[in-house]
Amino acid sequence: MVFSSYDFLLGFLPLTLIGFYALRAAGMRRLSVSFLLLASLAFYGVWSLWHLALLIISIAGNYFCGRYAASSAPDAARKTAMIAGVAANLLLIFWFKYLGFAGSNFAALLGVTFAVLSEQEQRIAVNERDHAQALYIAEAAVCVARTWFQDPSSSNA
Prior knowledge:
By secondary structure, the chain is mainly alpha-helical. The protein is 84% helix and 0% strand. It has five helices and no strands. The longest helix is centred in the middle third of the chain and has 36 residues.
């Protein structure tokens, strides 16, 4: 399902908006945010279950790295957790977005024919599409986590 498809525009989007705002109107702010997170994961899961699992693992890893970096642990350990989290995210971005480009250029330098890499590059193109959606979902998950774990006395909504 893509954002411009009828399934999304006439089915998924209206149902998600109705569910989200109905829960908000009923005063269930935290549940509405959880509903939005689950709807986002369902949307992504329709695209690729393998990448959904990868996304969930990435979200969990980012969450725990962030929690540890914000803890009262020694500064060196907190810094290491933050660097590890950023490095893992950069590695995932490189793998799904730039590996095909780097591989093609490296192969061209070595004189490897394009036919050898064509299957790999097709997989990379699919991964690039999936990564764009994963990034969107990951950003939504960060917003959900911020909303969910913020101090209720500082809430604006």
